[in-house]
C-alpha cells in the first residue's frame, strides 16, 4: 500500500505544481506575458542571427501563444488530478486493477511533456532560439519540470502486485 499511496501523492504533487504555474501565469500576467513576448519576438537573441525570420512581433499572436501555454498547464493539472483520483479509487484493488488505473498518469505526463519539452525546448528553445537569450531563457526550468514528470511516470508505471492481506 505504501507504494500505491506514494504514486497517488506524486500525482497530486504534479497537479499542484501545474496548478501553481498556471495560476502564477494568470495572476502575474504581465511579467509572464513579457517572457512570451520576448521569446517570440527574439529580441534578446544574438544580434544579427540568421534565424530572425522566425520572429513573431504580432501582439495578438503573443497573446494566443501565452493562453495556449496557460491552457496546457491547466490541462496538465486537471489530468494529474484525474490520475490521482483514479489511482486512489483503485488503491485497494488487485494489482491488475491498480495497474489499469494508471492511464491518466500517462496522459497527464504526456500533456506536461508537450508543454515543457515541446513548447519550451523545441518551439521556444530551438525554433525561437531562446537558448541565445541570457534574460528570457526558460530551458533550464522546463528541463527540471519535464524530467521530474518523466521520473514520476517511470515510478508510477512500475507494476503493482496484489496487496498482501
Topology (elements, then pairings):
Blueprint: H1 2-27, H2 29-41, H3 59-90, H4 95-100, H5 103-127, H6 139-156
Helix pairs in contact: 1-2, 1-3, 1-6, 2-3, 3-5, 5-6
Features:
165 residues, mainly alpha, 6 helices
Overview of the structural elements:
There is one protein chain. The termini are close together. 73% of the residues lie in helices and 0% in strands. With 165 residues, the chain is mainly α. The relative contact order is 0.16. The chain contains six helices and no strands. It has helices at residues 2-27, 29-41, 59-90, 95-100, 103-127, 139-156.
Please give the share of residues in helix.
over 70%
Average pLDDT for all residues: 95
Measured between the Cα atoms of the first and last residue, the distance is 11 Å
Q: Radius of gyration over alpha carbons?
A: 19 Å
Unreliable stretches covering 5 or more consecutive residues: none
Order of helices and strands: HHHHHH
Q: Tell me, briefly, the overall form.
A: elongated
Query: What is the helix tally?
Result: 6
How many strand segments?
0
Strand content: under 5%
Please give the largest β-sheet.
none
Structural class: mainly alpha
Amino acid at each position: 500500500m505504501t507504494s500505491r499511496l506514494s504514486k497517488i501523492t506524486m500525482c497530486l504533487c504534479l497537479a499542484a505544481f501545474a496548478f501553481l504555474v498556471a495560476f502564477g501565469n494568470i495572476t502575474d500576467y504581465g511579467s509572464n506575458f513579457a517572457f512570451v513576448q520576448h521569446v517570440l519576438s527574439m529580441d534578446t537573441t544574438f544580434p544579427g542571427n540568421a534565424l530572425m525570420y522566425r520572429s513573431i512581433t504580432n501582439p495578438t499572436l503573443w497573446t494566443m501563444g501565452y493562453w495556449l501555454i496557460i491552457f496546457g498547464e491547466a490541462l496538465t493539472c486537471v489530468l494529474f488530478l484525474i490520475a490521482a483520483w483514479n489511482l486512489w479509487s483503485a488503491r485497494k484493488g488487485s494489482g491488475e486493477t491498480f495497474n489499469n488505473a494508471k492511464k491518466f498518469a500517462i496522459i497527464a505526463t504526456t500533456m506536461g511533456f508537450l508543454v515543457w519539452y515541446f513548447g519550451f525546448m523545441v518551439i521556444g528553445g530551438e525554433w525561437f532560439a531562446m537558448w541565445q537569450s541570457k534574460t528570457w531563457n526558460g530551458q533550464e526550468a522546463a528541463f527540471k519540470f519535464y524530467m521530474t514528470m518523466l521520473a514520476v511516470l517511470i515510478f508510477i508505471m512500475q507494476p503493482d502486485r496484489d496487496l498482501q492481506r
